[in-house]
Design goal:
The complex is a heterodimer of chains A (515) and B (77).
Chain A lengths: L5 H20 L11 H6 L6 H12 L2 H14 L6 H26 L4 H9 L2 H32 L11 H17 L2 H29 L2 H6 L3 H4 L10 H17 L3 H8 L4 H10 L1 H20 L5 H10 L4 H9 L2 H39 L5 H25 L2 H15 L3 H6 L8 H21 L5 E6 L2 E6 H23 L17
Helix pairs in contact in A: 1-8, 1-9, 1-18, 3-9, 3-13, 3-14, 3-18, 4-7, 4-15, 4-18, 5-12, 5-14, 5-15, 6-7, 7-18, 7-19, 7-20, 8-18, 8-19, 9-15, 9-18, 13-18, 15-17, 18-19, 22-23
Chain B lengths: L11 H6 L8 H10 L16 H24 L2
Classes of the chains: A mainly alpha (515), B mainly alpha (77).
Chain lengths: 515, 77
């Protein structure tokens, strides 16, 4: 690995020190009683349109995204651009479904999607299934944020042998854990503002400066093998790369706002209207993500993959090193510091929100429901703070002791699992038609089917469905949730004959703005 | 079953905020435009050297945001 890049490192550390201060100071921002779970875990539901924009943007467009999407473009080409249609179709879904969820959750002080399912369908076991799915899907996602952080730390030339090499990661995580414990959701919300400004700065610098250095887009794309610039045209009797591309985009979009950290960001907004407005404003981040995907092609054209000085980095981090290598190659050291800090801080914001979201789920839907049904407000908030710590250190141990490919596989599986909560949560905000036991069976079979497809596809998210001589390669999550939906619909009338439905504690008017 | 079909037992004023509005059909446009790769999987015409595949999809981020804003203003109270 190259020598330590001191200029970059000092700027990186200075920005890190600043957000550490900010994270602790955030406890006093829009001050609330942090001994209440909705104050600690949802920032008191006080964030207006603008802060929500920063918070959800910082939450969804994670460090790992900024490393992995360009890395996929660098390695596999055009298919990486599925992130663009994905983040286009996700916002109508946000607009149509989630303001309704916000209103009903605000009305009943629900802080998780599982709380909502519990109230809507009156079934603690279905709520438990939602909570466990959320927690299990979130943990590897937190671990992946660490991979993003690891790559930029490595990029600055900091390396070590054995576990001492992980020391900077451990320190960053202790800092993160401490301010999340102290300030709750206010910490990532305030840091998200800094992170997003840095990320925008980096993305626009990269998209303007690097093409000038490389002689323009025309030259860049001329340097890329034709097989990588477009999707392969499907052969006869198959939907080929087209089907895979579209189903990956649609399935990922359907899953995104079901993740606990997304729902935490939405519920922290001050009104359903702030959520609606954000459906029109958040595409600003999608545009930046699209530009960053192109940066993966710049890395091919710049030839960073063949440089001896980057060989060690590529060996350690694979294609995930493409972006750090390109930045080191194209930017002056001080700007490398800013860009790497953007990615590093970009890892901490979602990691904090994810750990808070997982803690909320455990506290409300597992502990309160099954272990201690009458905690005081203070006990409940205190438990959530401890759980957020445990969750983060679990993720850290995962990355330090296991190869990062496990976290990647589990995160891919997490997407297949979390989408199985769609019928109960997303359709649940529109209708109570479904029988809760039908939803439960749909969920279970969806998880099993999706996992089986993932394994059958050799641990890849794209499964090839073969029907009567035609083959349809597509995103396993989408196929599995269709199985789930069909079962939920077919079994609902049957179960309605067998068991009396549970009570619904919500009312139609509670899903809308109060008149 | 506390089954509650949309729109029923709601007065006229409530309906304005509730589930459905014809404006939501505008969203279909962006779904079709970006989820059907045959529309855009080609290199020509390029824009400042960027193949059509890329600038078409980037452009749709902006159109999608405008459509979403339009639906928001049209259905806002």
């Amino acid at each position: 690995m190259q020598e330590i890049n001191w200029t970059a490192l000092i700027i990186f550390l200075a920005l890190f020190a600043f957000i550490t201060w900010l994270g602790f100071a955030a406890a006093h921002w829009r001050k609330g009683d942090l001994d209440l779970l909705h104050e600690w875990g949802l920032g008191g539901r006080r964030f207006g349109t603008l802060i929500t924009w920063f918070l959800i943007g910082g939450d969804l467009y994670t460090a790992y995204t900024f490393i992995a999407v360009p890395a996929l473009a660098f390695g596999a080409g055009a298919v990486a651009f599925f992130a663009v249609p994905y983040t286009i179709v996700v916002y109508p879904i946000l607009f149509l479904v989630f303001p309704r969820l916000w209103y009903v959750c605000h009305r009943h002080n629900y802080i998780t999607a599982a709380d909502f399912v519990r109230g809507r369908f009156g079934n603690r076991w279905l709520a438990l299934a939602m909570a466990i799915t959320g927690i299990v899907a979130t943990l590897p996602y937190i671990a992946l944020q660490l991979v993003g952080l690891q790559v930029v730390i490595g990029g600055m030339g900091i390396s070590g042998t054995g576990y001492s090499g992980d020391l900077p990661l451990v320190i960053a995580f202790i800092v993160l854990a401490a301010f999340t414990y102290t300030s709750g959701l206010r910490a990532p919300a305030s840091i998200a503002i800094v992170k997003d400004i840095l990320i925008y700065l980096t993305a626009f610098a990269a998209i303007i400066a690097i093409p000038i250095q490389l002689g323009g887009f025309e030259k860049i794309f001329a340097a890329i093998p034709a097989s990588k610039t477009l999707l392969a045209t499907p052969g006869p009797n198959t939907t080929g790369a087209y089907g895979a591309y579209a189903t990956l985009a649609l399935g990922s979009a359907l899953a995104l706002f079901l993740y606990p950290h997304s729902i935490t960001g939405i519920l922290a907004a001050s009104s359903g209207r702030a959520v609606r407005r954000n459906a029109a404003l958040l595409p600003g981040y999608s545009f930046m993500l699209g530009l960053l995907a192109l940066v993966g092609f710049f890395a091919i054209a710049a030839g960073v993959g063949d440089r001896p000085e980057f060989a060690a980095g590529f060996k350690q981090f694979g294609n995930n090193f493409a972006i750090p290598a390109l930045f080191l190659d194209s930017f002056p050291s001080w700007f490398v510091g800013i860009a790497f800090a953007a990615v590093g801080i970009g890892a901490l914001v979602p990691a904090a929100i994810m750990s808070i979201a997982a803690a909320n789920l455990y506290t409300r839907n597992i502990h309160r429901e099954f272990i201690n049904s009458a905690p005081t407000d203070q006990q409940e908030a205190q438990l959530a703070k401890w759980v957020s710590l445990i969750v983060k250190f679990g993720a850290l141990a995962f990355i330090v002791f296991l190869p990062s490919k496990f976290a990647i596989y589990l995160q891919l599986l997490g997407g297949i699992w979390i989408i199985q909560t769609l019928p109960a949560v997303m359709l649940g905000v529109y209708t109570r038609w479904f029988n809760e036991w039908a939803l439960m069976i749909g969920w279970a079979v969806g998880i099993a089917a999706g996992t089986a497809m993932f394994i059958a596809a050799n641990l890849a998210p794209t499964y090839t469905l073969a029907v009567a001589g035609f083959s349809f390669p597509g995103y396993a999550a989408l196929y599995a949730v269709i199985v789930n939906l069909v079962l939920s619909v077919v079994l609902t009338p049957l179960f309605n004959l067998l068991v009396a439905g549970s009570a619904d504690e919500t009312e139609a008017a509670e899903y809308q703005a109060p008149v | 079953m506390p089954d509650r079909p949309l729109g029923e037992d709601m007065n006229q004023q409530d309906r304005r905020h509730s589930g459905w509005s014809w404006w939501h059909l505008l969203f279909l446009i962006q779904f079709i435009a970006v989820l059907w790769p045959p529309f855009y999987n080609r290199a020509e015409p390029t824009l400042i050297g960027l193949p059509f595949f890329y600038w078409y999809q980037l452009l749709w981020i902006i159109i999608g945001a405008i459509l979403t804003a339009a639906v928001h203003f049209a259905t806002d109270d």
